[in-house]
Specification:
alpha/beta; 6-stranded antiparallel barrel
């Protein structure tokens, strides 16, 4: 029986795509492998939001080929959609399947061909042997035994039924399971925005929504399997329902989840600032309270820049003052919420004055963490030409990144310090081997603060932690209520358990570990 391994790169929505692929593989009889080297099928689900994402995917494909040369390597995702010939030229690649045909990845991986397609040479929408592609000069390096399935993403409106792999649902409380305790449910794909720096619309197509009925069924499936926290994700999540008939609104869908399912905790991923409607804020005020808030107090609003001029060149649909108004409304609705933002440094033409404007804007906002990244020119976007004409030097980019990192570290410390003496709800996660060996476990608070707890605890258990102090590496806490530990190695008689909450930089590493490349 075939064993599979899926490696995901990129955002929460991409990880949800990987889960859907895994679920389909299991539906066709495959079993999850214990690791890369044991798998007969390896699916590499790529990202292409930056040049670094492309490099990371190429490096992993080469690693997979060296570590497991007998495996059938199938590459999918945004990089596969954007540059299939480039991906196909890598050693060991059996097939390249773009986002346009992602629902067929499992059948390609297991059967060698799609279940419902025969090879069609020179077809823009069929099953295309690599040798028949219009290829660049390196075409002679292609493996003629491999093939591609790529077509116009805008011609496809299919959206896979949201699903979870059985290996996730059946082992939510298994301390030995190498999966996420907090999986993602992707309910929206594609994007109708045309930001000048972004390649995603051309690799994922226009905005498409999963039906209300399918979403509610998937949530119920997760709850019945014993799940505690579910992350709702999408490429442009705030646009959910706009393409449905009749049209839907995200706030109505979220309200129905809270009112008709017993889901203990719902977390929503990144939403554009202007899509944080008053209706969603009302839900946060209502459900983001109590000992264990059902609406996680964690809000991520992409900013990209605090400079008006840079935002205009980016073709973002808001100005700094719009963003500040929404952020203030979120803080008013949930004073204890962790507030995060994406910020791009070194956008073409960004002057010292524009960066200072951005720095000053962020300093004035109640943000508690930033996802900082340098601008990366993507072929096929307006930003590519803008970068050619007005690049920002690498030294300036590094200095600006460092300045923002210093600023947000200071703000993050002040935010964490505010919880001394208070109690926070936390969910235990799947701990890595090194942490377990130290007789400790990892948890995540509802407002996105990771906590390391003494004792080996089963994942997927709700705890209440009291924060006691600020340490060099973060916060100290004790557990004031908890479920029974997973093993006898953890004390069952004492409810006081020392914990440490990691700093922001460690939190990013922990998220990567906890999610098995999240």
């Amino acid at each position: 029986m075939a064993e599979y391994y899926v490696e995901n790169f990129g955002c929460r929505a991409s990880q949800a795509d990987g889960d859907a692929i895994a679920a389909t593989l299991e539906g066709l009889g495959a079993l999850p492998s214990d690791g890369l080297t044991q798998a007969s099928v390896v699916v590499v689900n790529t990202c292409s939001v930056t040049a670094e994402a492309d490099r990371g995917a190429r490096a992993y494909i080469r690693l997979a080929q060296r570590a497991n040369p007998q495996a059938r390597i199938v590459v999918t995702g945004c990089y596969a959609q954007r540059a299939p010939e480039e991906v196909a030229a890598l050693p060991g690649v059996f097939a390249v399947v773009g986002n346009s045909h992602k629902d067929q990845v499992a059948s390609v991986a297991l059967n060698g061909t799609p279940l419902n397609l025969a090879p069609i040479s020179n077809s823009a929408s069929g099953f295309v042997p690599l040798a028949d592609l219009q290829a660049p000069t390196q075409a002679s390096n292609f493996q003629t035994s491999a093939f591609c399935q790529i077509s116009d993403i805008f011609a496809h409106t299919d959206f896979q039924m949201p699903s979870f792999p059985a290996s996730v649902l059946h082992r939510l409380g298994d301390a030995n399971a190498a999966h996420r305790t907090r999986p993602s449910l992707k309910i929206q794909d594609g994007c109708g925005n045309r930001c000048t720096f972004c390649i995603i619309p051309s690799t994922r197509g226009n905005s498409r929504s999963q039906s209300r009925e399918n979403v509610l069924a998937a949530v119920q499936e997760f709850v019945e399997a014993g799940g505690k926290e579910l992350v709702i994700s999408g490429i442009n999540l705030g646009r959910w329902g706009r393409d449905l008939t009749p049209q839907g609104r995200l706030e109505d869908l979220l309200a129905e989840i809270f009112e008709t399912t017993p889901l203990p905790r719902l977390r929503i991923s990144s939403i554009e600032p202007m899509d944080w409607t008053d209706g969603i804020l009302a839900l946060l005020r209502r459900w983001g309270t109590g000992e264990h808030p059902r609406f996680a107090r964690h809000v991520h609003l992409p900013l990209q820049s605090g400079s008006d001029g840079v935002l205009r060149r980016m073709h973002r649909r808001y100005r700094p003052w719009h963003y500040a108004e929404r952020l203030a409304a979120v803080r008013a609705a949930s004073p204890d919420a962790t507030l995060g933002a994406d910020v791009m440094v070194g956008f073409p033409g960004e002057t010292d004055a524009e960066f200072q404007e951005c720095h000053n804007f962020i300093a004035a906002q109640p943000l508690t963490y930033l996802h900082l990244f340098p601008f990366s020119a993507r072929p096929g976007t307006p930003g590519w030409e803008m970068h050619r004409q007005s690049p920002v030097g690498g030294v300036a980019v590094r200095e600006r990144m460092a300045a923002l990192r210093t600023l947000i570290d200071r703000k993050n410390l002040a935010f964490r310090s505010s919880f001394i003496g208070r109690e926070l709800s936390a969910l235990t996660l799947v701990s890595d081997t090194a942490t377990t060996a130290r007789q400790r476990s990892i948890a995540m608070t509802d407002n996105f603060l990771p906590v390391e707890i003494d004792g080996v605890w089963a994942p997927n258990a709700l705890l209440t932690a009291q924060i006691t102090a600020v340490a060099t590496q973060g916060l100290q806490a004790i557990i004031v209520t908890a479920r029974k530990p997973a093993t006898s190695g953890a004390s069952t008689s004492s409810l006081e358990t020392t914990a440490k909450c990691y700093t922001h930089e460690a939190r990013r590493s922990l998220a990567h570990l906890e999610a098995a490349h999240r």
